[in-house]
Amino acid sequence: MTVTVVAIKGSIQFHTDDEETTLVPGKAVVMAPGEFHWLEAPDEAGEVMVVHGVLAQ
């Protein structure tokens, strides 16, 4: 499944093997199926919403 991660509160560091992106409210990243990733919240205020979806064929 394709996954979209959207920051809804605070700041989140989104990591993949190749890059790091700072997510703030309204900013999002889209991941391909099976893409390795991890998240870090610099403080406890960070919150994200994760949306799973199947690409139409």
Throw out a few tags for this protein.
three-stranded antiparallel sheet, 0% helix, mainly beta, globular, 57 residues
Overall description:
The chain is an all-beta fold and 57 residues long. The chain has one domain. The protein has no helices and 6 strands. The strands form 2 sheets. The chain has a 3-stranded antiparallel beta sheet, with no helix packed on it. It starts with a strand and ends with a strand.
Question: What class would the helix/strand composition place it in?
Answer: mainly beta
Share of helix, binned: under 10%
Q: Approximately how much beta-strand content do the residues carry?
A: over 45%
The SSE string, one letter per element, is EEEEEE
Number of domains: 1
Radius of gyration: 11 Å
The backbone outline, from C-alpha atoms, is: globular
Specify the number of helices: 0
Mean pLDDT: 85
Number of strands: 6
- Chain oligomer state: single chain
Q: What is the terminal-to-terminal distance? A: 13 Å
The biggest sheet amounts to: 3 strands, antiparallel
Task: Summarize this entry quickly.
By secondary structure, this protein is an all-beta fold. Helix content is 0%, strand content 56%.
Which helices and strands occur, and which strands form pairs?
Blueprint: E1 2-9, E2 12-16, E3 20-23, E4 28-31, E5 37-40, E6 47-53
Antiparallel strand pairs: 1-4, 1-6, 2-3, 2-5
InterPro entries: RmlC-like_jellyroll, RmlC_Cupin_sf
Protein name: Cupin 2 conserved barrel domain-containing protein
